[in-house]
Amino acid sequence: MSDRSGLKWVKLKRFISLMFQPESMTTYQSVSRFEDISIERLKTDGIEGVLIDADGTLGPDHARQYSDAVVGHVLKMKESGLKVAIFTNAREDRFHQFPGIPVVSDVPAKPAPEGFLKAMEHFLELENPAQVCMIGDNYLTDGGAVKAGMLFLYVEPIPGPENFIHKWTRDWAFKRCKSNTSP
């Protein structure tokens, strides 16, 4: 079980690049809660697979229990025919509530494009990044999917205890990206 959280060179590099490449913060959709994501719209828009962040998206940081509504929505995505995997930089041993949903491991940390591409190939078994959507609460890490050719769906973060630097960089990136969000 690897832990890809913390300050990594790839995160620092993306943080700096966001100042000069606002197009890398393009947002496909933005929702208040994970359960507000329209599965029908994803499918209508040609999405075949989703990578889902955990901390701040499915529950508060470091959660080990997730609401029935969140678990149900993840399982509905899978039942609809979408390929689904959880892609977190944090520990991978806390997702027992999501039966049949793989947890991405042994790939480079988000926001490295090669991490997203390996997750797509090995865990979703898809080949075209344009048919994959990364769902998450952090433009700095999860939004790195855009550099890999994927769509990024922003979910407002679920409040809870979290590292100050993580919160500050996430909030900074969110403020930078507001002008790059589609309806």
From TrEMBL:
Write down the superkingdom of origin.
Bacteria
**Gene Ontology MF: a single term:** hydrolase activity
Keyword set, alphabetical order: Hydrolase
Which InterPro entries does the record associate with it? HAD-like_sf (IPR036412), HAD_sf (IPR023214)
Instruction: Establish whether keyword rRNA-binding is in the entry.
Output: no
The molecule here is called: HAD hydrolase-like protein
